[in-house]
């Protein structure tokens, strides 16, 4: 093998080693990033569950009030205010 070919092989080996190291570092960062994304997704899911429970409780509370308000309007509509005087 000539010296030029040996130099090219050495340069190629160095470049491949650098890409291998960079690939490993990138893989480690991607694993950490995916772990953080899982934590954020779990936190968001908990928040959504709490909001859903609050809305469900509010709708249970408001539903009877809405029905009572509608019944009150109909009672006022069909009763004659002139008879009360």
Search tags:
85 residues, mainly alpha
Helix content: over 70%
**Distance between termini?**
120 Å
For the largest beta-sheet, the strand count, sense and barrel status come to: none
How much strand content do the residues show?
Answer: under 5%
Order of helices and strands: HH
Task: State Rg.
Answer: 36 Å
- Low-pLDDT segments, ≥5 res: none
The number of helices is 2
Number of domains: 1
Q: What class do helices, strands and sheet pairing give? A: mainly alpha
Q: Which term fits the overall shape?
A: rod-shaped
Mean model confidence by pLDDT: 88
Question: How many β strands by DSSP?
Answer: 0
Walk me through this protein's architecture.
94% of the residues lie in helices and 0% in strands. The protein has 85 residues and is mainly alpha-helical. It is rod-shaped, with a radius of gyration of 36 Å.
Outline the secondary-structure elements.
Blueprint: H1 3-78, H2 81-84
Q: In brief, what are we looking at here?
A:
The protein is an all-alpha fold and 85 residues long. The chain has one domain (3-77). The protein has two helices and no strands.
């Amino acid at each position: 093998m000539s010296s030029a070919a040996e130099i090219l092989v050495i340069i190629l080996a160095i470049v491949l080693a650098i890409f291998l190291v960079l690939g490993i570092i990138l893989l480690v960062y991607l694993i950490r990033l995916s772990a953080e994304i899982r934590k954020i997704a779990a936190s968001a899911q908990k928040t959504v569950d709490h909001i859903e429970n609050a809305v469900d409780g509010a709708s249970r509370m408001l539903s009877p009030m809405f029905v009572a308000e509608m019944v009150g309007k109909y009672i006022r509509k069909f009763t004659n205010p002139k008879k009360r005087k």
